[in-house]
Each structure stands twice: as structure tokens, then as C-alpha cells.
Amino acid sequence: MTDVTQPDAPADLFDPLGVDWTPVSPRLASARLIVTAIWMGPLLLAGVALAALTQVAWLWSFPALVLALVVWITVLVPRQVRAMRYAERADDLLVRRGIMFRQLVVVPYGRMQYVDVTAGPLARKLGIASVQLHTASPATTATIDGLPPQEAARLRDRLASRGEARLAGL
């Protein structure tokens, strides 16, 4: 009887051995919470105003539901941001995210077509940017949100040069 287990197999599917993960900026959580407040604040105020003006008791369930959702998002978003990480390896880029539903995206440098760096007004105010990698397959595009602008520029340049080097060999 032979042992079919592999001693070099990673202990966790989403945490390969020997990978140094780089976390995203915690300011991403602030950006997402501000967007939540912008959307949920008016809903909460409208629900409270409607319930108070009509004096119908069951209408208070709507603002209570919105408030419960805001509390849930406030607890969940920082945990989600802490779970987001990326790693550069010799031949590919790894992007990991998720708490309950985990995702690990592996993008070989030779498959990259171009790299985008974006930052909206709120992201610029908070000092963060996003890097998006595009490949020939739309299913394998990877996005890294919440990077400091200097890191986003460094990563963009490094990924572009690595992608060109890998494509030159084809």
C-alpha cells in the first residue's frame, strides 16, 4: 500500500506555502463605510420621517431594518478588507479575498494584456487607488482595491514590465 498524500501540498487551498501576502490599506474600509452611510442615511431618515408623520406603528420596522443592515455592514466591511491580500510571485500574481466565500485568483504575467489604475474622488481623498489586471478572458480579470497611490503605481509598472517580458518569449 502506498501513501498518496503529498508532503509538499499546501495545508490551505487559499494560502499557498511560501507566499508573502501584502494587505490592502485599511482606508478601504473607511471608503466603503462612507459609501454605505451616503446610501443608507437618507433611507433611514426617510423611514423615520414616514413612521413619525403617519404614526403607524408597523412602519417603524423599515427604519429598524435599515439600522440593522447598517450595523451588519459596519461589522462586516472591516473584516472583509482585512481578508483582502495580494502577492507577487516569479510567474504570476495572486489576489485573495473573502471571509465566508473565499476567492483566490492567479493571473500569470504572460496572460496580462493591460493594467488599469483608477481612483474616484472619495478614493483620492482617502489616499487609495485600485489596480485592475485585464487578460484575454473576462473571467480572469483581477482587481486589487485599497492600495496607496505609490504602491498602485509601482505595482502597475512592475506588472506591465513583467507582462511584456513574458509575452516577448511567446
UniProtKB/TrEMBL annotation:
Location of the YdbS-like PH domain: 82-159
Keyword Transcription regulation: no
Pfam families in the cross-refs: bPH_2
Protein name: Membrane protein
Keyword list, A-Z: Membrane, Transmembrane, Transmembrane helix
InterPro entries: YdbS-like_PH (IPR005182)
Transmembrane keyword on record: yes
Membrane-spanning residues: 33-52, 58-77
